[in-house]
Amino acid sequence: MDRAKAGRRAGTIAVVGALLLLWEVAATYGKWLNPVLFPRLEEIFAALWNHLPDLFRGFLSSMSLFVPGYGLAVAAGIAGGLYFGLHPRIRRVLMPLFHLLSPIPPTMYIPYAIALLPTFGTASVFLIFIGAFWPVFMNTVHGVLFIEKSVLDNARVLGLRGRLLIFKVILPAASPYIFEGAGVALAFSFILLTVAEMFGAKSGMGYFIQYYADFSDYKNVLAGMLFNGLVILGITALFEKVKHRLLFWTRLRP
Fold this sequence. Notes:
Blueprint: H1 3-29, H2 41-50, H3 52-86, H4 88-101, H5 110-116, H6 120-145, H7 149-157, H8 162-200, H9 205-214, H10 218-246
Helix pairs in contact: 2-10, 3-6, 3-8, 3-9, 5-6, 6-8, 8-9, 8-10, 9-10
C-alpha cells in the first residue's frame, strides 16, 4: 500500500471514529437527543450481534431477489445496447422512446407489478430489473457510439467480423461506459430492493428494518441499517475491484 492510499484510509478511519465518538457523547451525556431515537452505540452493537442470524437469513433472502434482477438487467442492457448501438437506423427511430421511458421512476410500476405478476418475489425482481436496466443499456449504447470510426475500420481491415469484432474490439472499447452504467445500476438496485422489502416482503434486510420500526425499536432499526450499509459497502468494493482489474488500462495514478 502506498503512502497516499494509507493516508486516505487513515483519514477515513479518523472521521468515522470522530463521528462515533460524537454520537456516543451526545447519546450518553447530551440533553438534546431523544434516547429512544438515538440509543447508545453499546445498545446498537449488542442488537447487531444478537440478531446476526436473522440478518444473515435476511441477506440470503434479499440476494435471492437482487441477483436475478440485477444480473438479468446487466445482461439485457449490454445485449440491447450493443444491438442498437450497432444498428443506427433502428436506433434513430427508437431512441426518442428510450429517452421517454428511461427517466420514469421504477416505483411507478409497483401497482402493475403487483397486479400482473404472480408473486411478490417476481414483482420485486421486475422492479430491480427495470431500475437497473436503463443505466446499463443507455451507457452501452453511448459506449458503442463513442468508439472512434478508425478503430472499427482498422478492425475490419484485419478481417474481424461478427462475434470476433464484438468481443475483441467493441466490448473492450465500450467497457468503461458499461461499467459506469453497471455501477449506477448497482446502487439503484439496492435502493429498490430495500423499498420493495419494506412494503411487501416477509423477510429480507429491508423487512428487518421496517419490522422493528413499526415497534419503534430503534436500536434494532439502526443495527439493521448498519448491517445493510456494511453489505452494500462490501459488494460495492468487490464491484470496484473487478472493475479496476478488468479496466486496468484506464487507471490513473494519484
